Amino acid sequence: MSETSTTAPAPLPTRAVDTTAGRPWPVRYLSMKIADYIHRMPGVWVEGQVVQLNRRPGTTLAFLTLRDTDADVSLPVSLHVRVLDAATAPVEEGAHVVVHATPRFWAKRGTLQLEADEIRAVGLGELLARIEHLRRLLAAEGLFDADRKVPLPFLPGTVGLVCGRESKAEHDVVVNARARWPQVRFEIREVAVQGVRAVPEVTAAIAELDADPAVEVIVVARGGGSVEDLLPFSNEALVRAAAACRTPLVSAIGHETDAPLLDLVADHRASTPTDAAKRIVPDVHEERARLVQARTRSRAAVERLVHRELDRLAAVRGRPVLASPHVFVDGHQREVDRLHAAADRALGDAVRAGSADIDRLAAQVRALSPAATLERGYAVVQRADDGRVVRAPDDVAPGDPLRVRVAGGEIPAQVRHP
Quick check: is 378 in a domain? Predict the structure, then answer.
């Protein structure tokens, strides 16, 4: 007879950190551990938005889905119908609520659910107070500062438009913009503009249009609505996404009296979608009128300048020096002619006086000239050998040759006796 030996199973690790591939936890054990951990959690107040609300007929339970207002996260909630009916305000889909609930983990299905024992609708005053608190927080960060605003382009080639699906806001922006400038192009992103999908869809559309280099300005447009309807446009995540947008952003949310936080962070605020259309593109008729006016003013300015310069030119040309440029030369010419005539007269007088003097002197010379004396019958006797004039008989001796000069010439002679 052989002995049969049995080996006892090894105990499971007590902690998750002690598990190994050789010593794993069974699924039931892990679910039990998770349920045990979660069930130790106390009740907690949770804030969110009601996405789905379901009252099952014939039961005392109601179910809803509570969605985070800023992120795509939700949790199922179960509650007794009397808790739902005892809410401070009627709870409907889309309502903003705070719920006091206890987490419950269903180990068999591996699901987490909240069991609510109290639900409160968030009132309008509280919502406005939260928006005001967020406004102050963002303002302290400088997200609303004027130096962060960028100017709109004068004539954008492409306009990005974020609006509701087949909404009147889209019609108002597109129709009015094209009426002002028919060539304007639009990149339209139709998204949810209220409800739980509004924040993620509007944020994604702004980011997509901002990444498009062809889009030069972005318009976020929505028609009017209640404060609750416009809550997505005061959502912190959406406002920060708008602040990070590099493309000029125009906010056209609701009516003129509505003031979501998106208006404060946007580069430009339009009171209505129609006003946004007027801000993003110029009016072609007004621009043409301004162009005609500018051309008229320019032409008038040029004409005034030309006339003024012509008047100045005429005034300059009317001056004597330019009207008769030879007038000053004529005066000097007359003076030169006068001096020239005076010089001629003086020279003539001097010449005539000199001529008279010459004639007088010539007469005197002729009167005193030996030749004139010779013409009167006188003669000059000169020694023939040395030409000396014989003035006395003692100047010569018999036989000396002489030259006798008379008016008609010379006569040779010889001394015969003293």
Answer: yes
Q: Do residue 184 and residue 70 come from a single domain?
A: no
For residue 135, what are the contacts with CB-CB under 8 A and spacing of at least 6? Answer: 261, 264
Residue 401 has pLDDT above 60, yes or no: yes
Most confident of 39-48, 52-61, 69-78, 359-368: 39-48
**Domain-ending residue, one of 88, 122, 156:** 122
- Tokens read off for 207: 């980011």
Rounded distance between C-alpha atoms, residue 327 and residue 336, angstroms: 14
Per DSSP (E only), the strands in 185-311 are 185-190, 217-222, 249-253, 268-269
Q: Find out whether 98 and 79 touch, Cβ atoms under 8 Å.
A: no
How far is the C-alpha of 173 from the C-alpha of 276, rounded, in Å? 7
Could you read off the pLDDT of 66-110 as tens digits, one per residue?
888 767 788 999 888 888 888 877 788 777 888 899 898 888 888
Same domain, 89 and 188: no
Structural domain span for residue 268:
144-282
DSSP state of 233: G
CA angle at 136 for the pair 210 and 209, rounded to the nearest 5°: 5
Q: Identify whether 339 is part of a domain.
A: no
Report the alpha-carbon distance of residue 293 to residue 283 in Å, rounded: 15
